[in-house]
């Protein structure tokens, strides 16, 4: 097998391991009962993990570029494994502060470093199919909950609760270590086109000073904010708005994970042919129409629309690294991607609070959906500006002497 396909498998290995963070909901009720604490107290560990994912990816991206994906992957493995082992200790001691420290902070740092580690490497191995390459890696993150949730539930039913994160730590440590040691850069000759691609582009400092960077950050934030909000209330919303039973809604939520993962690889591969800018425009057109129609849809139509919207949510993640490389090049892609991921951290913290407030204030989800439509209109405007006002030659404009 060609070396580049082993790189893809390694990227999937990292992401399908750290992506199990999306299976946290399986732990919530058992931990609540074990600790005797509230849902909000347990869920804050997840919010903290996502927050640290975003900001560790931003602040540690320069070290991923400096030391390479192999060492970065091993650092991610260490932090994520220690986070899970510490989570087991926190559960055993019934300590909420330890849960926040190990799962939220240390585990979150492992998530952030691990998330950006494969991106720059896979893009360099597939310079002509960047969407496909990053989509394969980030697809693993989307599918992880679908794979991990039943396994975690089986472990909870079989062994003492404090041992469950310990077992996961051992398994993920093996997968992530093997994946990390597989990473390498493609062999290139000095003066070749491949070498030029790998070394051209903006530095992170230059990228964040462009107008495109805050525009991309904002549309990324909007897509994640609305998507996470829907994921967090998909079951109760389906029961209240579409008249589904609890069992039907639970089944729908399980399948949502499949569409989240599938959307990541399908949309990113599609973007290689349709263009990243055009793909984001299509995302937001679909989401504007989709969230507007959700207010009045019921039954299978409601479920089908949720599935379609979740593919756009997943696709927004997987297309972003390739979009960044289109505009800024791959010179410091890990750092630039890390800065963009702060939008994920903030959205993950704010979206559940926004949903809870609107549900309590307006006694329903209609206002929430209309608010999302307004946000997606803003995102569509930004995506159109990016489409028609951006340069795609990977070279920052240099100041000329007066």
Provide the descriptors you would attach to this structure in a database record.
402 residues; mainly alpha; 15 helices
Describe the structure in your own words.
The protein is mainly α and 402 residues long. Helices cover 83% and strands 0% of the residues. Helix 1 (3-18) packs antiparallel against helix 6 (164-182). The model has no long low-confidence stretch (mean pLDDT 87).
Count of DSSP strands: 0
How far apart the termini lie comes to 55 Å
Order of helices and strands, N to C?
Answer: HHHHHHHHHHHHHHH
Structural class: mainly alpha
Number of helices: 15
Roughly how much helix do the residues carry, as a percent range?
over 70%
**Largest sheet entry:** none
Give the C-alpha Rg.
21 Å
Cα shape: globular
Mean pLDDT across the residues is: 87
List low-confidence stretches: none
Strand-residue proportion: under 5%
Outline of this structure?
With about 400 residues, the protein is mainly α.
Q: Which secondary structure elements does this structure contain, and how are they paired or packed?
A:
Elements: H1 3-18, H2 25-35, H3 39-93, H4 96-125, H5 130-158, H6 164-182, H7 193-199, H8 204-208, H9 212-241, H10 246-274, H11 276-294, H12 299-328, H13 333-340, H14 342-362, H15 366-389
Helix pairs in contact: 1-4, 1-5, 1-6, 2-3, 3-4, 3-6, 3-13, 3-14, 4-5, 4-13, 5-10, 5-12, 9-10, 9-12, 9-14, 9-15, 10-11, 10-12, 11-12, 11-15
